[in-house]
């Protein structure tokens, strides 16, 4: 049907193992002529898996995360004649509310409470925080378990109810366009421009493993980046290399970057 070994040959052992499981589901979708679904995948797993799946004849994939800009998504793997309206992704949204007016709670608090019930991370998608609580996008199969067992978040009692994805309180993504020139497409040079810091300080951040390229830690300051690469630093957001605009009169590379705030 397709050559797994060839499809996985360019990946390291850990990434190959993750994609291998997805390929098993792809094979099943083609054999049974019906959709199969992955668990929620993080951005790095999606980045690795999608180009591999795109090489498989007669197969297509669709992404579902509850909303368009979701970071964690499950993939539907289907024969290529399927249309989206034929697919019902097995995810739902739980609205988790409590008396949080006088107690600040974080993404980590909500995620910790959910995982503390015994649920695995791969069954949980994005968590959307708002003033009254959190809207958790989860695999449908764990809905009843969470509703029965999630009683507290940060020692505050909570109520849990199922809601529609249309009720998600998604705030518009704020971005800032940055136009700059750099001597080269080295990671330290581009990241210092995107995050508005000195190259020497950025080099230290990279060397200590604080910087990711396409959701993978890169500790080599001379690593070469390219268009569409995503650079991220925990606590400082993300920068996307939106476009390389050619060279300036002095031979420097002109860039358009998109900073996610």
Automatic annotation (TrEMBL):
CDD domains from the UniProt entry: S4 (cd00165)
Among InterPro entries, the record links this protein to: Nucleotide-bd_a/b_plait_sf (IPR012677), PSII_S4 (IPR017506), RqcP2_RBD (IPR040591), S4_RNA-bd (IPR002942), S4_RNA-bd_sf (IPR036986)
Mention any Pfam family matching this sequence: S4
Q: Give the record's keywords alphabetically.
A: RNA-binding
Q: Where is the RNA-binding S4 domain?
A: 185-242
A single Gene Ontology MF term assigned here is: RNA binding
SUPFAM superfamilies the UniProt entry points to = Alpha-L RNA-binding motif (SSF55174)
Q: Which NCBIfam families match?
A: PS_II_S4 (TIGR03069)
Provide the protein name: Photosystem II S4 domain protein
**Organism listed in the record:** Halobacteroides halobius (strain ATCC 35273 / DSM 5150 / MD-1)
């Amino acid at each position: 049907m397709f050559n797994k070994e060839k499809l996985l040959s360019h990946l390291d052992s850990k990434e190959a193992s993750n994609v291998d499981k997805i390929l098993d589901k792809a094979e099943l979708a083609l054999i049974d002529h019906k959709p199969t679904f992955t668990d929620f995948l993080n951005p790095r797993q999606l980045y690795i898996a999608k180009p591999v799946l795109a090489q498989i004849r007669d197969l297509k994939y669709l992404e579902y995360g509850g909303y368009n800009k979701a970071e964690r998504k499950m993939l539907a793997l289907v024969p290529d004649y399927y249309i989206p309206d034929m697919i019902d992704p097995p995810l739902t949204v739980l609205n988790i509310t409590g008396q949080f007016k006088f107690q600040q709670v974080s993404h980590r608090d909500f995620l910790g409470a959910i995982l503390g019930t015994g649920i695995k991370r791969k069954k949980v998608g994005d968590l959307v925080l708002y003033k009254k609580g959190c809207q958790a996008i989860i695999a449908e199969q764990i809905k009843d378990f969470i509703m029965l067992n999630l009683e507290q978040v940060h020692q505050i009692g909570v109520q849990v109810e199922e809601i529609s994805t249309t009720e998600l309180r998604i705030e518009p993504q704020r971005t800032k366009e940055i136009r700059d020139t750099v001597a080269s497409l080295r990671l330290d040079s581009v990241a210092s421009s995107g995050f508005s810091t000195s190259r020497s300080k950025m080099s230290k951040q990279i060397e200590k493993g604080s910087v990711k390229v396409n959701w993978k830690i890169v500790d080599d300051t001379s690593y070469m980046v390219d268009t569409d690469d995503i650079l991220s630093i925990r606590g400082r957001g993300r920068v996307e290399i939106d476009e390389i605009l050619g060279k300036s009169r002095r031979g420097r590379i002109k860039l358009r970057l998109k900073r996610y705030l």
